[in-house]
Specification:
This protein is of the alpha/beta class. It has two domains: about 180 residues, Rossmann fold (3-Layer(aba) Sandwich); about 200 residues, N-(1-d-carboxylethyl)-l-norvaline Dehydrogenase, domain 2 (Orthogonal Bundle). Helices cover about 50% and strands about 10% of the residues. The chain has 17 helices and eight strands. It starts with a strand and ends in a 6-residue tail after the last helix. It binds nicotinamide-adenine-dinucleotide. The site of nicotinamide-adenine-dinucleotide has 22 residues, from helix 1 and helix 4.
């Protein structure tokens, strides 16, 4: 069904979400308090649609119709006819509260309101609304036009009916939708933590350098990018902040403990590609370190990171954050993992995974390596995660 969709915030995420909704055939109103940002968003969307015409994804006429279905405005009142408004403004609770309080007075009683927040709870944002039953999280990944995954997150007050409506609507936008609980990091930003955290830990212990860890994860593990290359892409400031936020939100569970190495890189301004220097040097003419291609060390690195990732996926399932299929889809479609982690555990055998974790746990005696009870149950029952 074609509808009027509102997007508030025309930055990195808002512009992409607006384009996705317009490409799905909706009339879209994109608002931002900053007129320059609106102009930039329009230029970016036009350029992206022109490229899609060149690639043959749309005809010229289709792309022109999509462009015409988008309206850019600095007036929040222009969302009055919307049936869904997605917020993608700055990640600050008080500013989001101000916006939603105003928005609630602008839109009709059946308009669904959503936030694209990465790190705030849906319950905390929705608390400012008179009717929070129509409020939920719709979490797109960056870039929203390309990444297929969308996490849909009902809060404690959200009605099932609205959640189902949104699940169907966003699926019709050619996205893979996973529904998950309103818990820190939702699925992807929680389950992916060891990819970075354990890689940093292995480096800090002096077991291997950045290049060797990246080599192990790509060449042996089959991941598209190694953890240090990926952190440099994301930005050490952003990636560190997500880790710190998830750590605090989990009441400082040691599993999520941030790393000094990453903090120091952030403090030094070694943010990654955007500053030409992160874990690697991106300045023109700089040489890249070569990995120690030791297959025994590589296997050790890969398996250590993998079992921690599987343990985290098992925990998300154990704590009912999402279904087994949703957990696996989230990691393959949201962060391009070569396999779903639970399917990977099934392939390797829960016993093998548990054995590796128990070895780490007995060696270090640290909570970060404690095996999840669900893993133990799978071993005991000789059952699989994915049925
Ligand atoms: N960048 C990512 O990779 C990513 C991924 C998923 C989710 N998110 C989430 O999406 C949201 C937006 O992130 P972003 O990276 O697009 O931010 P951004 O800084 O690129 O854009 C935010 C935009 O919101 C506008 N804005 C700020 N206050 C406003 C207000 N009161 N009313 C209207 N417009 C306002 C700003 O002018 C800016 O254009 C955040 O909640 C973030 O956590 C970001």
């Amino acid at each position: 069904m074609k509808a009027i969709i509102g997007v508030v915030g025309a930055g990195t995420m808002g512009a992409g979400i607006a384009q996705v909704a317009a490409q799905a055939g909706h009339s879209v109103v994109l608002t931002d308090t900053n007129p320059d940002q609106l102009q930039r968003a329009e230029q970016q969307i036009v350029k992206s649609l022109d490229k899609l015409v060149e690639k043959g994804k749309f005809s010229f006429e289709q792309a022109e119709a999509i462009k015409a279905s988008l309206t850019y405005s600095s007036q929040l009142s222009d969302h009055s006819a919307a049936s869904l408004v997605i917020e993608a403004i700055v990640e600050k609770l008080d500013i989001k509260h101000q916006l939603f309080a105003q928005l609630e007075q602008t839109v009709g009683p059946n308009c669904i309101l959503a936030s694209n927040t990465s790190s705030l709870s849906i319950a905390s944002i929705g608390a400012c609304l008179k009717d929070a039953s129509r409020f939920l999280g719709i979490h797109f990944f960056n870039p929203a036009t390309i990444m297929p995954l969308v996490e849909v997150i009902p809060g404690v007050a959200t009605s099932h009916e609205y959640t189902n409506q949104i699940e169907q609507l966003i699926s019709s936008w050619h996205k893979t939708v996973v529904v998950c609980k309103d818990t820190p990091g939702f699925i992807v930003n929680r389950v992916a933590r060891p990819f970075y955290g354990e890689a940093l830990r292995i480096y800090e212990e002096g077991l291997a350098d950045f290049a060797t860890i990246d080599w192990a994860m790509t060449e042996i593990g089959g991941f598209k990018m190694g953890p240090f290359t990926l952190m440099d892409y994301i930005g050490n400031d952003i990636n560190y902040t997500v880790t710190e936020t998830v750590f605090a939100a989990f009441y400082y569970d040691p599993r999520f403990k941030p790393s000094f190495t990453q903090k120091r890189h952030m403090e030094a301004g070694f943010l990654g590609r955007k500053t030409n220097r992160g874990f690697y040097d991106y300045k023109e003419g700089s040489s890249q370190p070569t990995p120690t291609k030791d297959p025994i060390l590589g296997k050790l690195i890969f398996e250590r990171i993998l079992v921690l990732l599987i343990n985290e996926a098992a925990d998300a399932l154990f704590m009912q954050v999402a279904s087994p299929n949703a957990v696996d889809l989230a990691m393959t479609k949201g962060v391009n993992y070569p396999k779903g982690l639970l399917a990977w555990a099934d392939e390797l055998g829960a016993e093998w995974v548990l054995d590796k974790l128990e070895t780490l746990f007995s060696e270090y005696g640290e909570d970060r390596y404690r095996p999840n009870p669900l893993l133990r149950r799978k071993v005991r029952e000789q059952s699989k995660f994915i049925l």
